[in-house]
Amino acid sequence: MTETTAEIGLRWDDLDGGKATLSVNRGLVSIGYELHETRGKTANARRRIDLDATTIAVLDAWRAWQTVEQRAIGIEPSDRMFTDGAGEAIHPHAISQTFERIARRAGVTMIRLHDLRHTHGTLLIAAGVPVKVVSERLGYATPTFTIETYQHVLPGMQADAARVFEQLIAPGVLPGTKPR
What's the pTM? Predict the structure, then answer.
C-alpha cells in the first residue's frame, strides 16, 4: 500500500483575501490510488501563512475562471481550489505527472513537484527571511529542523553576515583605515 500526499485539498474558504492569508488545514492523501482527506502529519502542518498581493490576484482570477468553466459544463462551482474537469479533487499523482511533463517540455532541470517546497524554503532563507518564519510557512516542527534541512544555503550567508556587521559597527570606514 503506497501513500502519496499533496496539499491540494485546499478549499476556497481556506483563503482570506482581505487579510491575504491562507489556512493550510488539510491535504489529500492517496492510499492505493484512493483519495482521503488528511489533517496533516503534525499539528504544525496546520498553519496560516501570509500571501502577497500577486498571489491573491492570481487566486482570485483562478477562482473566477474555475467558476465560469464549471457553470459552463453545468456543474455547481466547487468549494475546492483545485479540481479536475468534473469539479472533483485532482489526484496528487495527476498533478505530479503534469508537473513532470511541463518541466520536460520546458527543458529545465527535472525536480520532483515536492521539491518546489524546498525551493521555496531555500529562496526565502537565501533572501534573509528569518529561519523561524520559513519554518512556520513550511509547517516544520522546529526551526532547528529547518536549519538542518536548508544548511546548504547558510555558508554564503556567513560572509554576508560579516559584511552587514561591518557596516553596522563601522559605517563609512574604508578597509585598511583606522576608525576615527
Answer: 0.73
